[in-house]
Write a structure and sequence with these properties.
The structure holds two protein chains of two kinds. Chain A is mainly beta. Chain A contains two helices and 18 strands. Chain A folds into two domains: about 150 residues, Sandwich (Immunoglobulin-like), CATH 2.60.40.1250; about 100 residues, Immunoglobulin-like, CATH 2.60.40. Chain A is about 10% helix and about 45% strand. In chain A, the strands form four sheets. In chain A, strands 11, 12, 13, 14, 15, 16, 17 and 18 form an eight-stranded mixed beta sheet that branches. A four-stranded antiparallel beta sheet of chain A has the order 1-2-8-5. A three-stranded antiparallel beta sheet of chain A has the order 3-7-6, with no helix packed on it. The N terminus and C terminus of chain A are likely disordered. By secondary structure, chain B is α+β, with helices and mostly antiparallel strands. Chain B has a single domain, classed as 3-Layer(aba) Sandwich (Glutaredoxin). A seven-stranded mixed beta sheet of chain B has the order 2-1-5-4-3-7-8. The longest helix of chain B is centred in the first third of the chain and has 16 residues. The chains are: A mainly beta, B alpha+beta. Chains A and B meet through helix 1, strand 9 and strand 10 of A and helix 1 and strand 9 of B.
């Protein structure tokens, strides 16, 4: 039985091409660049820049909650004083399951968009240099940490146009953003389970494709069980064995539709203390 | 086709052979296990009853493990713990042929290379001990007290990264918990988010 696995491993190793042995170059797993949605920064306005990750086949990087292992991609900005960067607007993740463990992240090509706020008194006609250090962990089954300093110099101008070279990448990045839903609901801790009950008018009509909790140390990372109940939607997760205290809220990203035509919605629900009377 | 069939068979075997059991939890008695160590000796957890035991899940090819061995942090913790009478068992649950899978000689060569100071280096290619403890990352740390009760499980420290420079800024949870146990105090951080590479299980 052992012998039967070896040819498979040989094949797996070869797909990694040059990276099978020595410390591989970063570009062998993921190509990382900094891009802007528009041609200029406009005083008083918000612009989008993004970290573009182009993964080699079978390699992935991580969402804000990486799941059972891994690390989220992290950005450290170095900006002129008139420019402020917000947090990554995380696109809805994909699930990667290997050896009974689940990870959340991205393969293929993805842009992690970051909002850039330009002060109203920034001077048109000057240039702004946006610099950052990006750190990521890229994994297939094995993992390689990466880091890169990236810079992008953009003019400050009274107007800006869409950047034709990045239009498609940002359109995909915006489409992959979870849309804030109008659903209401709550999460309860019920024994070894965390149960999220949602109600609202535009809940997915069929079973959602997947659901992801933003907070770590809260639920296990296997897919939840879905149930339609009284017109609402109930998601049951196993409680994380690392849960020590329930947070005030639970942030959920719910993905429905069949890939590639998925769409993602987000909801934040309060965490109620376990209350048997809530149960049917 | 034959290969696919055999692979499917081996996966089925592993699924059947892996017991479905309750997960370990802090404050509760831990399950026993027996594994061969890198010197061919069988190490059974319960033989160390009466002593505090640290379990360290490892994979020599994982960059997070490399962070803590390359910096000497792991070896220092092993030296300090074993000098205080603690038993330190390093466990490698990489499945046969997966990343980090090494045989007994390979394990001894690795220990010699990095200057490992654990009590024993245990090989768990079937993943049975790893699954029983729900070990999911390398490193992933557990502390069991002299009565066989789990007192800590989680990450090696408080800063999830592969950067050695973070070690001195992080809280090292294992030495902290060992010192508290020795002083008869409750463990102030009994769980933390484990971080690292995934354990390379076969199924």
């Amino acid at each position: 039985m052992r012998g039967s696995l070896i040819p498979l491993l040989g094949a797996a190793a070869m797909t990694g091409a040059a990276c099978a042995n020595a410390a591989p170059a970063v570009a062998d797993q993921v190509n990382v660049t900094l891009i802007a949605e528009q041609t200029a920064l406009v005083p008083g306005e918000r612009a989008w820049v993004g970290l573009r990750l182009e993964h080699e086949p079978h390699w992935h990087t991580y969402w804000i909650n990486p799941g059972d292992s891994g690390l989220p991609t992290k950005l450290t900005w170095h900006l002129p004083s008139e420019i402020k960067a917000g947090d990554i607007a995380w696109p809805a993740p994909q699930r990667f399951a290997v050896g009974g463990l689940s990870n959340f992240g991205y393969g293929g090509e993805i842009v992690l968009p970051v909002p850039i706020q330009v002060d109203a008194d920034a001077k048109p006609g000057s240039n702004a240099k946006l610099a950052l250090e990006a750190r990521w962990l890229v994994c297939r089954e094995e993992c390689v940490p990466g880091k890169k300093r990236l810079t992008l110099t953009l003019p400050i101008a009274t107007g800006a146009r869409a950047n034709a070279a990045t239009r498609k990448a940002f359109a995909s990045a915006h489409a992959a953003q979870p849309v804030a839903s109008s659903w209401s609901g709550q999460a309860i801790l019920d024994g070894d389970q965390v149960v999220v009950a949602l109600s609202g008018t535009d809940l997915p009509s069929a079973e959602p494709f997947d659901a992801f909790v933003v907070q770590n140390q809260l639920v296990g990372y296997a897919p939840p069980r879905f149930a339609r109940r009284d017109g609402g939607l109930t998601l049951t997760f196993d409680k994380s064995e690392y849960l020590t205290a329930t947070p005030a809220t639970l942030d959920l990203v719910l993905v429905d539709g069949k890939p590639p035509n998925t769409h993602a919605r987000s909801v934040t629900v309060p965490f109620a203390a376990a209350n048997p009377s809530v149960k049917p | 086709m034959k290969l696919g069939f055999l692979t499917a068979l081996s996966m089925l075997f592993l699924m059947v052979a892996t017991p479905v059991s309750a997960k370990v939890a802090v404050g509760e008695r831990v399950p026993d296990f027996s594994l061969a160590d890198s010197n061919g000796k069988t190490q059974t957890l319960s033989q160390y009853r009466g002593k505090v035991v640290v379990l360290e899940w490892t994979n020599p090819a994982c960059p997070f493990v490399g962070k803590h061995y390359g910096s000497g942090n792991m070896q220092k913790q092993q030296v300090d713990a074993t000098a205080a009478g603690v038993v330190w068992l390093t466990i490698n649950s990489s499945a046969t042929g997966k990343q980090g899978d090494i045989d007994a000689a390979g394990a001894n060569a690795y220990i010699a290379k990095v200057g490992g100071r654990q009590t024993a280096y245990l090989l768990d290619p079937s993943g049975s001990a790893g699954h029983r403890y729900a070990a999911r990352t390398t490193p992933h740390m557990y502390i069991i007290d002299a009565e066989g009760i789990l007192r800590y499980m989680g990450g090696i420290d408080s800063i999830a990264s592969t950067d050695k420079d973070d070690i001195s800024k992080a809280t090292q949870y294992v030495p902290q918990a060992l010192a508290e146990l020795k002083a008869g105090q409750p463990v102030s951080v009994p769980t933390s988010q484990p971080y690292g590479c995934s354990v390379k299980y076969g199924s």
